[in-house]
Design brief:
The structure is a homodimer.
Chain A: H1 4-16, H2 21-28, H3 32-39, H4 47-57, E1 59-65
Chain A binds a DNA duplex through helix 3.
Chain lengths: ~70, ~70
DNA sequence: TAAAATAGAGCGTTAAAATGCACTTTGAGA
DNA sequence: TCTCAAAGTGCATTTTAACGCTCTATTTTA
């Protein structure tokens, strides 16, 4: 769906922390099915879902001027 | 819903470009209703919606390690 | 301050996100 | 190669995002 970079960041961060999808699902409060789908590149998560995952992984979502 | 910063960035960027919600809706392909709700702090947009708005406004969404 | 433009809200519909459960596939190690 | 853990998929349900239309509220400007 064109979120390759974001998906990649989440997945790589999770793996570098040696956390399974199941554990991350528990920690973040996101359903396991939802996380699986997301990492598999399916679907279009909501901002809330992304935020929950980011919070659990110590990642922050920012929006800034391109190039700036 | 806790996305204050993101909402604020979108809204301020739109205003600094002197673009109305209606114009941004047209340019981005996001429905006017959806944009209005989002800027009003209601709801929980999908990543795709956020990406469309960001693209139209020259903003990029990034996810990175907190503090890093 | 009256008119016009812009922003926000209510209501209803459609499409899809989020979820659980059960099953299959894949990968790493004994 | 067998086993077990982790990842990925199918199916069904519930919730809700996205949306248009209409109306109201607010802001801007002539």
């Amino acid at each position: 769906m064109h979120f390759e970079n974001i998906i990649k960041t989440i997945k790589e961060r999770r793996e570098s922390l040696r956390v399974t999808q199941e554990t991350l699902a528990d920690l973040s409060g996101v359903g396991l099915r939802t996380l699986k789908q997301f990492e598999a590149g399916k679907g279009n998560p909501t901002l809330l879902t992304l935020k929950k995952l980011g919070d659990a992984l110590g990642l922050e979502l920012t929006l800034k001027i391109k190039g700036g």
